[in-house]
Specification:
By secondary structure, the protein is α+β, with helices and mostly antiparallel strands. It is about 40% helix and about 15% strand.
Length: about 80
């Protein structure tokens, strides 16, 4: 994610609510705290593909698309 962003490619990370804080800490440590992360409900592993798809709510989808297409759009996605 960081490497793509340094090449000028728009990126948005995806983390579950259990790993949101950790993901932001990693970005902070790598001087990339301004990169955006969409947060969805945990877990993703061990569930069916359709259950995982259900985690991508319209709000999450809109937040990700907005963050990728608008330079100042915040990523605020509901679980």
């Amino acid at each position: 994610m960081i490497e793509l962003a340094t090449r000028g490619i728009a990126v948005v990370g995806l983390a579950t609510d259990q790993f949101d804080r950790f993901a932001r800490q990693v970005l902070q440590q790598r001087n990339a705290a301004d990169l955006r992360i969409a947060v969805i409900a945990h877990p993703l592993g061990g569930i069916s593909a359709s259950a995982a798809q259900d985690r991508i709510t319209p709000q999450v989808f809109d937040a990700v698309v907005g963050a990728l297409t608008e330079s100042d759009a915040p990523v605020t996605a509901s679980l």
